[in-house]
Amino acid sequence: xxxxxxxxxxxxxxxxxxxxxxxxxxxxxxxxxxxxxxxxxxxxxxxxxxxxxxxxxxxxxxxxxxxxxxxxxxxxxxxxxxxxxxxxxxxxxxxxxxxxxxxxxxxxxxxxxxxxxxxxxxxxxxxxxxxxxxxxxxxxxxxxxxxxxxxxxxxxxxxxxxxxxxxxxxxxxxxxxxxxxxxxxxxxxxxxxxxxxxxxxxxxxxxxxxxxxxxxxxxxxxxxxxxxxxxxxxxxxxxxxxxxxxxxxxxxxxxxxxxxxxxxxxxxxxxxxxxxxxxxxxxxxxxxxxxxxxxxxxxxxxxxxxxxxxxxxxxxxxxxxxxxxxxxxxxxxxxxxxxxxxxxxxxxxxxxxx
Length: 354
Prior knowledge:
This protein is mainly β. It contains three helices and 15 strands. An eight-stranded antiparallel β-barrel has the order 5-6-7-8-9-11-12-15. Strands 1-2-4-3 form a four-stranded antiparallel beta sheet, with no helix packed on it. It has a two-stranded antiparallel sheet with strand order 13-14. Helix 1 packs across helix 2 (66-75). It is rod-shaped and about 150 Å long.
């Protein structure tokens, strides 16, 4: 029950070993009996044995019973100094906190078990089926497009807008588009173009004769450009990453035209009186609604898309009477446009394994 030499310290000399100084009961440094000397020798011996057992248990981290500890102490190498001090070496065959033996039976030292380095977390590799499901996911997108027409049949550049005024800025009103993506496979595209210009090869399609101040005036109208509200719808397939080709139809609703009006004085030889650019909204000769087929190719890089579209009328866009022969005629148009698109919004994917 009485604590023996509470001031003793445990000193570690080598890895896995400890050196412990314990004063023998009843003896001081001069081998003289002190106040503890009155205890019986047997009791002192038992206390020393139990103290050794507790020290070994605390040092090795084991929780053996008294019998095991006593046997363990018996295997220890005990060395008594002349001053009545004991040097205790931790017995071989002890275990660490994980329960694994850290020394060999013949070893006098404890080898500390090094902790294993942390394992790197490797993300699971998706299977072919998971990749296929991911490619089958759906997605919506929306953005703006700007078109620029190029001549395909000798159409001249007309520097007038749909209002008959000089300046072509109004011809570049951005178009709004929406897309439905089948990720990495194909997408469906629909857009709305407000007042889209359609260049044409000039031709005379109408004339008017007016009597004025005892002379006859003849006005001839030459068509230069038409304007439509367009709704293109196309289906596009990816042939390479980012590169797609597609085909579709375009609905056209006529909203106006730009014509050159030439006024002649009728005589033996007609004389040109004036030539002006006018806005023609007469829908009598124009087909109010007509369709075109289209083919396009485009390359998409992140949010930007650069492409080209060729379109041609399925049905005529105008029916008129030839001003010279009086024959009934009709015409179909074709167009080639390059475009630049920017994607403003894209939804989250749904369907498949995202």
